[in-house]
Specification:
LmbE-like_dom_sf, two-stranded antiparallel sheet, GlcNAc_PI_deacetylase-related, GlcNAc-PI de-N-acetylase, zinc, hydrolase activity, acting on carbon-nitrogen (but not peptide) bonds, in linear amides
Length: about 270
């Protein structure tokens, strides 16, 4: 396979661990160049550390530790403020003046496009239109990523997502046996992410489950906060054999491909260079 460059665009540190870590580790292991672009330092996320510079510094260090585990060649932090998450999925009312959600889409897209051009990237990942579970910064990643790919002429734009159908079935079953953290509302996933019929890429990352788990574990500040263990901590408590199955697939949508497309690798529809 021809060596290519993939740029993964995320909103906060730990988003890469949850959505694309397996794909990143796989591509790096296959000899491709993997670049990680992150919009904010996540300084307003729920954690035991106070919001602001201290949390930003800790989460940035965790991001670099995660990137090292995954084989990432370059990390780019755009430096926007974390917009936070207020009631009903809105941005926090006390968000900073430089919050990512308030950034001019064109200006932000130009900054991401500059990375794409510098790297001669073959692929950019962003998020689905819903921003996964609806965080305002994730929705902004969708807008900015789409425009950046247009500006740079990047051949592939994949929206990182989750197959909503099995996720809902698993969560409803798990709710019978497990008490989820307070911030985890199963009902919020009924319109989150993407229906299975719209997903174009199902990437098997079971061989890279260890790297994905290590990537999650690197984000220690996001395992606790508030009233106790958070979602990330719950994921890390899953026994390793089961973890490999639960997190063994990562999903993407390519909007330019016809419905019903089922591809297994991010570069499957790019012809090899002569």
């Amino acid at each position: 396979m021809v060596a290519r460059t993939a740029v993964f665009f995320h909103a906060h540190p730990d988003d890469e661990a949850l959505l694309t870590a397996g794909t990143m580790a796989m591509l790096a292991a296959q000899g491709h160049r993997v670049v990680l672009v992150v919009a904010t330092a996540g300084e307003r996320g729920l954690a035991d550390l106070p919001h602001g510079d201290e949390l930003a510094e800790a989460r940035t260090a965790e991001l670099y530790a995660s990137a090292a585990v995954l084989g990432v060649a370059r990390v780019v932090m755009l430096g926007y403020g974390d917009s936070g998450l207020g009631e009903a999925g809105t941005a926090g009312d006390d968000r900073p003046a430089d919050a990512f959600i308030d950034a001019d889409v064109e200006e932000a897209a130009q900054r991401v496009a500059a990375v794409l051009k510098e790297e001669a990237a073959d692929l950019l990942t962003s998020y689905d239109p819903a921003g996964g579970y609806g965080h305002p910064d994730h929705v902004q990643v969708h807008r900015v990523g789409r425009r950046a790919a247009e500006i740079a002429g990047t051949p592939i734009l994949l929206e990182a997502t989750v197959n909503r159908d099995p996720l809902l079935r698993a969560l409803r079953l798990a709710r019978r046996f497990y008490r989820f953290p307070p911030e985890f509302d199963v009902r919020s996933f009924e319109r989150a992410y993407t229906a299975g019929e719209d997903i174009t890429h199902r990437v098997d990352v079971r061989r890279f489950a260890r790297a994905k788990r290590a990537s999650m574990a690197a984000h220690a500040t996001q395992a606790t906060g508030g009233d106790g263990d958070r979602t990330l901590a719950a994921f890390l408590k899953i026994p390793r054999p089961l973890y490999r199955q639960v997190f063994g697939t990562e999903w993407y949508v390519h909007r330019d491909l016809p419905p019903g497309t089922r591809l297994r690798h991010p570069f499957d529809h790019l012809p090899d260079e002569a």
